[in-house]
Amino acid sequence: MIGACDPLASPRPLGPLLDLAPRLGREARTALTGTLTGSSRSDEVYDCLLADLSAYPSLLVVEDIHWADEATMDLLRYLARRLPNVPALVLATYRDDEIGRTHGLTALLGTLAGYPWVYRHDLAPLSREAVARLATGRTVDTEQLYRLSAGNPFIVAEILAAPADPIPATVREAVAGRLAGLSGAARSVVDVLAVLGTRVPLPLLAGILPAPEEALDEAVACGIVRTHGQVTEFRHELTRLAVLEAVPAASRLRVHRQVLAAMRSGPVAAEDLPLLADHADGAGDPAAVLEYAPAAAVRAAALGAHREAAGQYARALRYADRLPPERHISLLEGHFQACLLSSQLDEGIASCRTAVGLRRALGDRLREGDDLRWLSGWLWPAGRAAEARQTGLEAVRILEGLAPGGELARAYLNLCQLACYAHEGVAVVAAYAEKAIAAAERSGDAGVVVQARFHAAAARLLSEGHGWEDCEQAVSDARARDLSPDTGSMALVMCGLAALRREGARSTAAVSRAETYCLDRGLPAYLLCARAWGGWGLLHRGLWPQAADVSGKVLSHPGSPPVARTLALTVLGLVRARQGRPEVWPLLDQAAGLVDPECLLDTGLGWEAPIEAAWLAGDHEQVQADGRRGLAALANRSHPWLSGPLACWIRRAGGEPPPVPAAGPYALELAGDWAGAAARWDGLGCPYDAALARLSGDAPALRQALAAFEALGARPAVARTRSLMRVRGVRPIRRGPRPATRANPYRLTNREMDVLKLLDEGLSDAEIAARLYISPKTAGHHVGAVLTKLNVHTRHEAARRLHHPERE
């Protein structure tokens, strides 16, 4: 039986009982009518309802009792005292942010708290993870969404429904509804609190409004704001913004000026600098903004809050035209550094270009060269590799003409990094590394020394196959010296190294380490690139739904650098191609359009992915043509993990590739040792690549490849393998799924159903492997196949399908 209270100016007497009247017995209905007409007492209807609840096991739900009338509250008191003697459960719901100390419900709750058979269940706000999950597939900053909503499900849902509107209309209306019943004094308190900011000390509020205590209590009871000790705050930041939007401009200006004067009248604490800058801006006081905003930015950057630092620098730059050129440039330099570290690349690069021009106009060659180095370093993740190299060379040319110092060391290091990313060879990278180390040792820059050694080792690893331990040691040294963001940069590169070398275990460990470090240090650009490389590593391991899920989250983040977006789009395109799903080429074309050809060549993905997609589509001419173009573009580079796969694709398409450097498994396949290549791929944890190598093998190898492709859900590869088996006369060929698989609504095999049931128990791959007496790697492949066939992204979603097949 379900009844509800309504938000009426005069609540319906016994409104919930009126809702459920048709479910009541005849005596209860008669008593209810008599109570409402005044012909009988209310306790008669209470007795009759209790008799109905005693007749058979019952659930009585009373919704929104914060809007209940006195008679309904008395009914709940009556029932609560007698519940131990009846086979009934009474469930009453209310919003605790809508009741204050004087609300009628408060007394009822106090009474109920004394009964040991009464239980209170608080619904916690959504967690960060829950908010991020709800936002999956949408281009929204999930951290900002969580900050604005404080996990309130209504606000989260409304923002996601209207992402282009800073304050959704429904939220405005909900806030207006809460405010409508406030007195004028309470509304003034709420307006002033909205202007003051997020957390307002009560003494500050009392300094602006005379005797605000009673009005503040009313605002708290309304559910708009809450108090913690001597601090008052809005329950949700978006609520504050909605209130602030409705405050007249003249009132906002007056309050900002009052607060600014009050806060400046005494000592200024460092933690008050952001508030002072905000109120100075609101008060229209440029001098105060230029006093407090840069100081707040410096403090935020020191704390690793680079996004906040960028915002404060941007605030100061609005008034920078009244500053001397040197101070103006200093603000620009602080702004672009904070922007770049907080993944606001476009804004950061724009400020950096402006700073370079102003330094050049002043004739300050040292700072011009250093700013060019900054610009070069961030053009690469922005997808402009060719411009990054030219800018980096220009920075070195300028700085080499001056006295050597730390700026030159960093400029050499930048060229060392770019040469490593572009696979220009061990000798070139080592030469820049030596110059960087020599200059850094003179200037005492330990970060440059560690990074130079790291990138020299990385170049050896990519070209010659050894150097991983040296890279690990460099990262450990940087962490021990607390060299940030150098550590974050190297941790990110380790993710790329592992992914490019197809090393699944190392990729997982590297991404986990980079995520932890970048989250702790507030380095979102590095974090998003690390996750993008992580998606590439999952793809190689055959975990395609997980790879697509990670890539989708990278794409949904508005701060993802172009390189990260290119990686993510490429992974999504390949997952679709391998699964035989549509809309492959739009994703790959979009990926190629985000960055310049040099950057595509550096990552290798822009060449290999379209070639594989063409092979899966049976276009061998396109495979060979694109493969040869790719090898021609790589002619002056040394990266066997890029040239090797292109040569193999040419060979798989029936062509004869030119001799090129090829990494381990690719070299074995090109030499005709398909068994050795497949074994190497198995050792690296790459089932799809192992199956591709076995296509050149004998009948058992073809059957093994077919089984692997089927387990992965690689429909185009399954079709190609079957065709190849027919051509070679390999028999027998299994004609589609077994009867048990065909009977399954999701086409799961018996073994995959076993795995799905164990997923429902929450088991890991290792635990599934132990239960089914298989290897963890095989268990992982089965889990990936289950997720693919169910068309879900997570193990939890797969488990839900076991109980709710109708939701397919």
UniProtKB/TrEMBL annotation:
Gene3D superfamilies: Winged helix-like DNA-binding domain superfamily/Winged helix DNA-binding domain
UniProt entry tagged with the keyword Transferase: no
Pfam families per the UniProt record, alphabetical: GerE
GO molecular function: adenylate cyclase activity; ATP binding; DNA binding
Matches recorded under InterPro entries: Sig_transdc_resp-reg_C-effctor, Tscrpt_reg_LuxR_C, WH-like_DNA-bd_sf
Single GO BP term: regulation of DNA-templated transcription
The entry's keywords: ATP-binding, Nucleotide-binding
GO cellular component, as recorded: cytoplasm
SMART domains: HTH_LUXR (SM00421)
Domain HTH luxR-type span(s) in chain numbering: 741-806
Keyword Secreted found: no
Protein name as annotated: LuxR family transcriptional regulator
